[in-house]
Specification:
The chain is an all-beta fold. The protein is built from no helices and 25 strands. The strands form six sheets. Strands 1-25-24-23-22 form a five-stranded mixed beta sheet, with no helix packed on it. Strands 2-3-4-5 form a four-stranded antiparallel beta sheet, with no helix packed on it. It has a four-stranded antiparallel beta sheet with strand order 6-7-8-9, with no helix packed on it.
Length: about 280
Amino acid sequence: AVVSTQSTGVYSGHGQSVRYVLSSHDNCHLASASADRCAFYWDVASGTILRRFRGHESVVNCVAFNKTSTVMLSGGNDSMVRIMDLKSRSYEPIQILDDAKDSITSIGLSDDEIIVGSVDGRIRIYDLRMGKLHEDFVGESITNVRFSNDVQSVIVSSTDNTVRLIDKTSGQLLNDYTGHVHSKLQLQAASWYDDSAILSTCEKSKVFLWDLISGNVKQTLELPALAQTISVHPSRYQFITGDVSGQINLWITKGEKKPEESEGAKSMSCWALPPR
């Protein structure tokens, strides 16, 4: 159950539902993807849209930053990943990845790898140092892929009501997480910054939290509206969700400090969760 709420504020700008929202590693910027075919680059403190990236031919499903937040990637239903240089004034991509056979649903980055998930049921890992592409076939339509925080495994969401934890090198299934409803929509999963738990959105307007090792459900949270996107803070037990109304909400575990006004949270909804 939700313990308490703060006053509500909203980042406004997208013309249709927000499909994905992600915080930069320094927490100063957000990237968002929308059904309006655009990917936005935001300043957190002011709520200002710094860049509006167009070019996808259909819905934009996902976005990603590199660690220095100098490069932003977006993927969409046109089966392409567009890579943008945020230091450049150009709005043209510096590279396009077009190996997928169906919609791009998710993108993740490590220091030297890009991971891409697609409705074609394949995970694609681009090794930037070696210039190689590695593919793993999962079978079910993939809606979300992310590296674990230790970058040794991959968190995979698919439309068979299952989140999987897969060893990145061997492709071995390490654990699976069930109990939520995920059969139709493009839902996402993530892990706490210390990899102690897996979090996932749900088609019943909830967030599920599982223990990473046991796979047991630790908690379920009721959301104000159906959320498809979830992103976890890199060093705190906090996460953000983007819902179908176009609103971005910040969720804070009880005991965590709420962001100061100077840190730019004044236009987000802030929710306090029960203790871990």
